Fold these 3 entries.
Entry 1:
Amino acid sequence: MAELTRTIASEAFADRDELVVRLKEGDESAFDEVFQLYKDMVYTLALKLLADKGESMDVTQEVFLTLFRKIHSFRGECSLKTWLYRVAINQAANRNRWWKRHLQSRTVSLSISNEPDRPAVRELPSNQPSPLRDCYSAELRKALEKTLSELPFEQRVTITLRDVEGLAYEEIAEVTSTSIGTVKSRIARARIRLRDQLQKFKGGEEL
Amino acid sequence: MRCESFHQNLHEFLDLQLDAQALSRAENHLEACPKCQDLVGEFRLVQSIVARRVVLPDGITARMSVELKRNRRRSWRDRFLDLWDRIRTSVRDMEPISVWTKATAMPVTCLIFFLLLQHFAPVQIESLAFLIVSAERQTSEISSPPLMFSIQVEQNRSELNGIINAARKLPYEDSLTLVAEIDPDGRAEIGDVLEYPKSYDLLNAVQVALSTSQFKRTSEVASPVVIFSLQKIDVYEDSL
């Protein structure tokens, strides 16, 4: 089984290397292939980092344009995926910086968690699926996503790479050019803040 | 394992980053501790909500694919526009104070440079030419026999005592070196002081001694000079 997994993994890496070679040669089908393979990954990452669909779509397009235009400067020191992560994070950081400076002060949040002391929705007594419970889950998700979007950018990047992309601490450290200790502390701080929000939402007591 | 120890490695536990031994200890504690079970449950709920992936809508995917194909190759005009856009956006993204700082830095620097030029005018070409001519004039090769052999000096003890007393009165070490010209009457007149002493009393004493001493030429030279050098050194008893 392990042998089979190793074989599949090495074949996958060989495929990616071949893809990079085809990209550098200007193969049109390789561009389509890369776009189809990574578009959702880039879009998800951008959406988690920016919390805005329109901006995230723009960033996704920019990331692939950068990839296609600068593929000749890609030296293969890291994987294509890691390179894409870095490009996407840089693009999102630029947008985030601009948004923070120019639009944040003019934006009024319509989120349910405007009053931090009062729980927005009380916990429902039953665990049975129901329209109310679905609504509760959706509201909880929104509240946590809002808290995620309010985290410092570096924490947002780290928690997204860990919990969404499932990267190991070492891989996150490589993508973000930081130490593993920094990665661990950012993950811990981000999760504690998200859990605090969860508790406020549920109206439960602090542990 | 206590709850505090479990909490220390909680995030590594949630991320499956613990080694087998630590993982086993954590799992044993978790089985026995309902409070930590609740905590892990909450963090896993947070993780599951954060981990929700999204898919680029089909319509957007198709449109983006077309856009990417069209913009993959860039003309020089597009590259120029892109560069202009980058400059524009970088200026736009700057803090207003940075923009003003950068905008005013260049004229202010030019103004300061202009004022400095006005204050310290550059050297005129004529005076440079003069300097070069005078430098050429000074580097002539006139040689003369050593002057010290062409002069004899007669000094009284009292004249020398003047210098010794002036040096003794100084509370510090001192030294001087000077060149004196000998006039036809055999008197020395200080020309250049090569090394000024700290004490003017010492210089005066040397001047008096030189002016009262009688110098006698032993050979005919055009303008004999004396190089006079004096050094006062303190000698301490404990160093002897």
Note: Residues 127-140 of chain B have pLDDT under 50 and may be disordered.
Entry 2:
Amino acid sequence: MFWEVTLNLLKGFGVTCEVFALTLLFALPLGLIISFGSMSKFKPLKLICKVFVWCIRGTPLMLQMIVIYYGPGLVGKWAQGIENPGAIIAWLASWTVFDRFVAVLVAFIINYACYFSEIYRGGIEAIPVGQKEAGQVLGMKKSQLFFKVTLLQVIKRIVPPMSNEIITLVKDTSLARIIAVYEIIYAGERFIKAEGLIWPLFYTGAFYLIFCGVLTLLFGYIEKKLDYFRG
Amino acid sequence: MKRIIALLMAILMMSVVFVGCGSTADATKDEAAASDLDYITEKGTLVVGITDYAPMNYKDDNGEWTGFDTEFAQAVGEKLGVEVEFIEINWDNKFLELDSKSIDCIWNGMTITEEATLNASVTNPYVENAQVVVMTADKAKDYKDAESMKDLSFAAEAGSAGEATISDNGWANYTAVKAQSDALLEVASGSSDACVIDITMANAMTGEGTSYENLVQALKLNTEQYGIACRKDSDLTAKINEIMATLMSDGTLDALAEKYELALVK
């Protein structure tokens, strides 16, 4: 029994890890892009980014997932009900729901990219202006300034807040079950209904603990490695 | 240069916002107002939203879906000429699933409630679940409602839904017995006036042609009827009703009801 449960939970945990890894892979660079946008001197872009970050950080991830998964289908159904459709309505009518897993990923990537962007912004703006000026005096280009002077210091500074956010991400993946994606909590809850076993649900906690424990050690190691680099 | 980068980023942002909207459907679909039934037959699959819920939909030892609703849906799919695909959904979001066309119907022992009829187009009921009061035919004439039964003595299986029904109605004079069949025996022997048992049991064991010919179902309590939910205004509902009537008359559903010990709505 224990083995059967463990195997089932591992299957769910695989999905959890997939959501986690793919979200990080895309949200880390996307967050950097958004942070550039919200620091831009081009006002409209700055405004768009700020409003976007406000919307995403200001609504629950659970709701975003529901909107992203069910939204296109609902719009499509609404548009199909309109008579004499124009070109835009006809296009809207072709909208359908897409894969559940993709919907979860899109929601997580957008959501986490927004949080990451603010962490990046904090890190970048904390670098003293004097360094930038010194670089300019030395004739460095903007890109050189960013990659050779700013970036490494930023990375060192943002490791603690990032590790916080990344550990939160591990646990947030459990929200995916809202749109019936088979992650580990879903796998655990199934045993209550199908077999009348409650302990598998609590057992899922062990998987999260171990995963977060590994991440904590990893971040501790990274912080130590970056320690030589005193900003 | 900076302007161009800024512009590119603005475009990128917009595309991120709309990435969720990229549709996989064929945009050249004929007219938008095609009927729901056409939509389903055209794509060739009926997507059924379920949860793991025995005996309606559950997995057998090989991990394949089985159960009353599973076999029923497959029989309907065969008549419709489409494949039936079962998708596990989050029951809380069932109507969202339906409306967004993520599934085509909810078919999972769904009790027909006001919530269901408000949010979807529900077929005729097909299975009934209820607790019934069984007593002898001559007594049943005098007792028509729960209020009049309060002085009778009852029997029910210990820990059963019937027992809960008895206490819900405040019937104080009550004996707990080991099994539902024992409760029937109590009534037949006259040691209790009435018993409360599942409707499936009552249908199978009382009335003409059974060992308890003189017992009748005097009152149905906590009646629930199961129906299938389709999208609002969908023509699939009528089609399923039509096929359901055929399957009722040719005995397919009776066989299934017997196999899974359920009571059909006739």
Note: The CA atoms of residues 115 and 169 of chain B lie 25 Å apart.
Entry 3:
Amino acid sequence: MKAQEFIQKVKNQEIDIIEHTHKVLDEAKKINKGYNYFNIISEDLALEQAKNISKNPKGKLAGLPISIKDCICVKNVESTAGSKILKDYKPVFNATVVQNLINEGAIIIGKTSQDEFGFGSFSVNVGLDKKIPKNPFDITRVTGGSSGGSAGYTSITKYPHISIAESTGGSIVNPASFCGVTGLCPTYGLVSRYGLIDYSNSLDKIGPISKYIHDIELVLPIMAQHDPKDSTSLKEKLNQDSKTKKIAVIKETLNVEEKIKDLVLDKLDDYDTISLPLVEKYSLACYYLIAMSESSTNLAKYCGIRYGLQKELKGSFDEYFTSVRSSGFSKEAKRRIILGTFARMAGFRDAYYLKAMKIRTLIINEYKKAFKKYDLLVSPTMPIIAPKFTEIKKLTPLQNYMIDILTVGPNLTGLPHITNNIGLVNKMPAGIMYIADHLNENKLIEINKK
Amino acid sequence: MNIDKDLIKKVAKNAHLNLTESEIKEFLTQLKEILNNFSIINDINTNDIKPSFQPIEIKNIYREDKVEKSLTQEEALANTKHKKDGFFKGPKAI
């Protein structure tokens, strides 16, 4: 059942929302035993919200169960961004996006599993005390990442549901594609990042995952409200023109599994082909240099004093901070801190961080030129179907990073993009990705209604 | 540039991380591979190009200079074990 239909039934009191929420929570707990989609299920909060809705069934999301990626703060619910370094951290406030959803009657059912701080493409880089989510189509395969729990649960639950995920380099569309659902990563700044446990400030975007495009259309305006608490929150409104006249397939992105390529091209009626050579050649390196530099700065705040993992206060400042940080971060987080700290060090900053920022300008210009001629650009979402856990074990970190090759371009440039399922390849879902110019989310929604 | 074990140790010290010898060895190999691949960014001339610190140009955002509601002392201290007399307690400074 689509969210809108469910919400109407709640408002008409055709559904007992307390009973329904109990059923949803029971199912979530049962699913979680086998699939690890939640770091925490917020049963008390959900039931309290259900009671309120039963008395007063109002709001555009009245009674709708919503899960929240663990990196987005929910008041009084442990929010760890999938990391041991934030163990037991219970925010004393809601992220703006969460508050916006609650204001419209949403029921928050839990925090979904993810790669620690978003550091991964498969959701296998979970924090030291967390479990790895499994693909709903085949438990020997990954969900994709980093919003693996959000995509996996959305795919498998039998109840109406929307998950709120987050993308830095592809973390919404990647798992949505691998799990056969729809995911929208909005324009940078469209959804407030206040209350997001940040990975990379100039790249992070919060967006929805659902089974249905109509659910995305319903929830996006609620999420996308200007927020004075986030200095990068946009005041501009979405372009209301949702019509698409011309589409171009990005030539360099067709070097993927043959069956995935065929499904993508079969989906399109009429299209041109376009070449984006700068995106292909430079976006991956640029993306990772910026992401790691910004993340190493963001992770500097975790020191075991004010919140999160804490130990007995022993030794000097340096010794205490080093001891907490060394036992709280997993290996991938440490690797990215080292790389990012290196890229920002005196003598290297201009060669790496600043250079990457300048190339980002050239890549934005290349996309903008394409959007003068085309409404939407198209590519496969991922170059492969969800791999098996055994297949990715031997990949080097660089080989892991390369898997993001199709998604880093729009993420680096803050362009809105959406994935939708286009069928199965070897019994696993494959996705098509549409990219639009900034603030043209309505075109992405409209094209996917067809 | 020469990336060696000493450089990794220096970076780790700056980042307040203790790495084991095997982690240093592993990271050294991986960092070399990653940076070697990312050196592709040197192929392009960016002399006259402005950096994009954000993907969308954002002008300075100011707020009114007036007192707003903030966390209470109790809320600010709610997540720490290390507190005394309404303050955070830290490790030895000197």
Note: Chain B touches chain A through 50 residues (CB under 8 Å).
